[in-house]
Amino acid sequence: MGKNRITIHDVAAKAGVAISSVSRVLSGHLDVSEKMRAKVESAVAELGYEPDHLAQSLRKGATNTIGFMIRDITNPLFSIVAQSAEHELRKAGYSMILINSHGDLEAEKENFALFKRRRIDGVIASLVSEDSPYVRNTISELGSPVVLLDREVTGLNASAVICDHASGVKHATADLIKNGFSRIAFVSGRKDVFISRNRIKGYEEALSEARIKVDENLIRLGKFGEDFAYEQTKDLFSGKGAPDALITGGIGASTGALRALKELKIKPGKDLAFVALDEWPMFDVLTADLSSVYRDPEEMGHQSARLILDLIAGEATAQAVVPTLYRRRASSKKV
Amino acid sequence: MGKNRITIHDVAAKAGVAISSVSRVLSGHLDVSEKMRAKVESAVAELGYEPDHLAQSLRKGATNTIGFMIRDITNPLFSIVAQSAEHELRKAGYSMILINSHGDLEAEKENFALFKRRRIDGVIASLVSEDSPYVRNTISELGSPVVLLDREVTGLNASAVICDHASGVKHATADLIKNGFSRIAFVSGRKDVFISRNRIKGYEEALSEARIKVDENLIRLGKFGEDFAYEQTKDLFSGKGAPDALITGGIGASTGALRALKELKIKPGKDLAFVALDEWPMFDVLTADLSSVYRDPEEMGHQSARLILDLIAGEATAQAVVPTLYRRRASSKKV
DNA sequence: GTAATTACTGGAAACGATTCCTAAGTCTAA
DNA sequence: TTAGACTTAGGAATCGTTTCCAGTAATTAC
């Protein structure tokens, strides 16, 4: 067992030099003679020495660790974002601590505290809410740079990766209208966050351009997750004035809606036009040709990693915009 | 900005005591007088002091961090395992560093080295391979306890969470046989790991009890992931002697197989009996009533967390067995 | 009243690195 | 030959904690 750890002192003793010299050789830093380099390197090789990351962090004041906080790593979109970010960060010598907030504000707060205690170098987060005083305080007290996913928090020292939902949703809605639908329902998550505002914006723009009046009763914004969408979908079809098309936002919401439709024996693409916002793995294989608005989660991960590394390097905050793409499939029509 | 960090020295100065006393109060350790406790606590509260995790780790020799390494966090089963483990570990005061190995042995090796340098307290891993000399060496040199997911590595200081695949697969196979199928194909990942061996065991037992001879040509084991299963499925139906039932193992393989079937216009449950090993989110909503062998990923995460915490606490290595459940649905028959 | 125990506190040595400062040695120039 | 510049290497301080060791004051036992 590697009970007794090998430290820089062991290397120094073996090579017959001072520990400061060992450190200098290893960091490739200043002027060291060839002889010194050779001595130290052979001692390092012989002992199989590797510097202790902990001690380095303490001394250098940087942990080379990024905190990644999301509501739900189980969400396939987020898991791809996380994977992609991790890949990118690792190439830059950073590790990623992953934490779920379970969509809970209190947990989110504790997570930030944890990040602070761990002296994380930066945070990538998909927040539960947005732009509350609590968020402002927490982030500014954190003392390390932050990249937010799909959130707009102004006047704060944070970069952001935002997706151009409006555009994709607008295309989708316009296409539904073109296909003859006018009672287009919209079911999604919390209304107080950028992603929902931005999606609704696209939806309303398309309606407005087609001179269709917005029916507030068809818009159901409330909570993330399956349950809310399930209930709202059931409700939409419970009375008179049922919609002829349905757009559902977020993977959880789409799932809930599809479950409700299944129970109601309403077939998307047959009895009802349907567009899902965001796809999930095997979307093309498993679903019966559902239309969607797609965004590239790998790109989101990539951009968030890049932005946080830039901030750590001292650059100014920035925004990266990830495009969305309307993918027309069979369910944009009824047959 | 929280530029100037508040240290234990600041607290000690403010309270007019020695830093050792502050530490003693905070750790609730030995005999401290009520007066001392009060002084320190009010100073802590006033300054908003929180101990630096890094310095604590260095001094105590424990980082309260667990490394979690998987082939692919994008796999929804694994992402649930990860989430569940993280939840459990956090309750015990541990954070989780998540790393992907991308199914690459070289990357896996580097990841272990990283864990070692970071002085991780323990590792939960789903290895690419199993029981190679490399694995033995790496794990024993790691110096910290290890919990393996679905792997059997004997004679090593590692606990394991293993699933009783054999039982679920046996039930599934037997049910297919009972329904009149005899040419049951089996497509899954690498054959040199426990999970595949164990699944095949259940498959062969069911055949043997029904006195059906194993047709090696129907068994396709090779690689994890979509591509391999896609190719093999196509191949199975390319010539004569096509199977009348198909069992596909792992989410990746099932996806690949379903994609191939879709292209071949073979409908599971209609033209072919089909059982998927492992489910994915929304399985019931999205798939056309596919049968499956289910195992509870939350339970796997829970058990792996428990086992690693036990090992850290000095207990002996152990195995946790997670049951599997055959879920008969429409695709166990042809119509 | 003295000795022995106990309760509490402060000082200092770790933990394992980096980095600043200084001093010794080498080399060039006058 | 000596002063000055330049390399190179060692010593010590530092990062922010915990914990061991002593030492003082207070309490108890005789």
Overall description:
Chains A, B: InterPro entries: HTH_LacI, LacI/GalR-like_sensor, Lambda_DNA-bd_dom_sf, Peripla_BP_I. Chains A, B: One of its GO terms (molecular function) is transcription cis-regulatory region binding. The structure is a homodimer of 335-residue chains. Chain A has 335 residues and is an alpha/beta fold. Chain A folds into three domains: 44 residues, 434 Repressor (Amino-terminal Domain) (Orthogonal Bundle); 127 residues, 3-Layer(aba) Sandwich (Rossmann fold), CATH 3.40.50.2300; 137 residues, 3-Layer(aba) Sandwich (Rossmann fold). Chain A contains 13 helices and twelve strands. In chain A, the strands form two sheets. Chain A has a six-stranded parallel β-sheet with strand order 2-1-3-4-5-11, sandwiched between helices. Chain A has a six-stranded mixed β-sheet with strand order 7-6-8-9-10-12, sandwiched between helices. The longest helix of chain A is centred in the first third of the chain and has 16 residues. The N and C termini of chain A lie far apart (68 Å). In chain A, 48% of the residues are buried. The interface between A and B is large, with 50 and 50 residues. Chain A binds a DNA duplex (30 and 30 nucleotides) through helix 2 and helix 4.
Give a quick summary of the entry.
Two copies of one chain form a homodimer. Chain A is of the alpha/beta class and 335 residues long. Chain A has helices at residues 8-15, 19-26, 34-47, 53-60, 76-91, 105-117, 133-142, 165-178, 194-209, 226-236, 251-264, 283-286, 297-312; strands at 65-70, 95-100, 122-125, 146-149, 158-163, 184-188, 219-221, 245-249, 273-277, 291-295, 319-322, 324-327.
